[in-house]
Amino acid sequence: xxxxLRALYDQTLTIYRDDERILxxxxxxxxxxxxxxxxxxxxxxxxVRDEDFVRVDAELRPLFERLGARVxxxxxxxxxxxxxxxxAILFEVGSELLQYDMTIAKVCSVRGGFGRRLLTQAGGVxxxxxxxxxIAETLAANxxxxxxxxxxxWDIDHYWVYVYIHVKYARRGDVWRLRYxxxxxxxxxxxxxxxxxxxxxxxxxxxxxxxxxxxxxxxGLEVYFEGGDAPALVDAIGRASQxxxxxxxxxxxxxxxxxxxxxxxxxWAYGARHAAGGGxx
Length: 281
Known about the structure:
Layout: H1 3-17, E1 22-27, H2 30-33, E2 44-48, H3 53-66, E3 70-76, E4 84-93, E5 96-106, H4 107-112, H5 114-120, E6 126-130, H6 134-141, H7 152-172, H8 175-194, H9 205-211, H10 215-222, H11 230-255, H12 261-273
Parallel strand pairs: 2-5
Antiparallel strand pairs: 1-2, 1-6, 3-4, 4-5
Helix pairs in contact: 7-8, 7-11, 7-12, 8-11
């Protein structure tokens, strides 16, 4: 972490530890998961007494400016409500532009709203302080969610439906629809891989790819990001589908779900009959 960001982070923690309106705080970003590095920003959530929330919110930007932050952007997150506020704050230090993601949440949000989700489904947090025990109480009542294979067969079928659809797009030579197909197939592949790591954090795929998957699994996913024109995209989808078939069979076996081998075979046969460049669908 940049030294200037660390200094600002430590200052805000010190101030809020001494503020009776602030009951607790946790870090849910890469620092909270123990995977931070020199480029990491900060993502603390501060628990505010419900009755003091509006006033604390109004004081946030003046606080940062009083601490010497030259604010370039103060951006409210789209999920903001009367119970929780997040601001992406970009501030300038010399030639650097640094980011501080500041969240404040009412006690009611931590116990039963979006704040609870940030606490219990973030894949690991660091509790910074907990004056009233609200954070400990919420964590105890909400164990880390695990993957449930209830939709695994549906997800696998979903993948093969889109492989079928990609053949039609390939026959058209429609590069934009092919790119959409690649994006869709990648997201489904990530969902199915979660079945192999049911207790792992899966809320943000770049983190999961880097910190959960094996080198071999990461290499298989790289195929989705190859290619630019239609023939290259078609080739990438074909190779990615082979990787998916391997991973999906493993996931199905691990979860005791029947793998749709007949569906896979039918889609492969359809693709073989209509190779890329086969004219209009």
